[in-house]
Design goal:
The chain is 82% helix and 0% strand. The protein is mainly alpha-helical. The protein has one domain. It is globular, with a radius of gyration of 18 Å. The protein starts with a helix and ends with a helix.
Length: 208
């Protein structure tokens, strides 16, 4: 099994990677600012659940398919881009509500959780990143590789939960001020739509 020093190095690196600006933490920040802390935390749980898929993909070799097959990579990335465009359309057409009505209308826990899962799974670059990142910390002399990959995946998920959870709380507090103003909430929805559309374009143009 991996030694504590290696795990600590991997955990520290994972924290830094989660903090660096990227589609996932930007997505969490937008959702928390737009719908509140609870929404951000639910999306974070969904994204972390999606990381289980990518961990399994690397562990059992599926990620290699995305790296070597142009068809598989393109199909998955356009699925993700299409979903992001759908979210952008929803944000652009969203109305503005305040107070208790906003909390009831905007916090569909299951939908927000699924949104995080879909966002993460439909990004093939995450699997390719895991394929390049995780093997740097495994050691064939320290036990079964499958167990090591799964352990590293779990540590990465913990780091993601910590960082994205903090982003959700901070963005939720920031967004609270906007959600008490109909005009500000409309502007926030438009900004969210623009961010989702930008992420969709970035994903659609991604190369292996």
């Amino acid at each position: 099994m991996l030694d504590p020093k290696t795990l600590l190095m991997f955990f520290t690196t994972s924290i830094l990677l989660a903090l660096s600006p990227g589609p996932d933490n930007l997505f969490v920040m937008t959702q928390a600012a737009q719908k509140g802390r609870k929404a951000g935390l639910l999306v974070t749980l969904g994204l972390s659940t999606g990381l289980l898929f990518h961990t399994a993909a690397v562990t059992f070799g599926v990620a290699t398919l995305f790296k070597t097959s142009a068809v598989a990579f393109t199909a998955l990335k356009f699925s993700g881009a299409g979903y992001l465009l759908y979210l952008a359309w929803q944000a652009f057409r969203a109305g503005a509500v305040t107070g208790a009505a906003a909390a009831v209308d905007q916090l569909n826990s299951g939908a927000l959780y699924r949104r995080g899962i879909i966002m993460n799974i439909t990004n093939p670059k995450v699997s390719i990143f895991f394929l390049a990142f995780l093997p740097q910390f495994v050691d064939p002399l320290k036990g079964q590789l499958t167990a090591q990959f799964l352990l590293l995946g779990a540590v990465f998920i913990i780091a993601t939960l910590i960082v994205f959870g903090a982003i959700s709380l901070l963005a939720g507090v920031f967004g609270e001020y906007f959600r008490h103003s109909l005009r500000a909430q409309k502007l926030l929805n438009r900004a969210a739509g623009g961010i989702f559309a930008g992420l969709a374009i970035k994903l659609a143009l991604a190369q292996r």
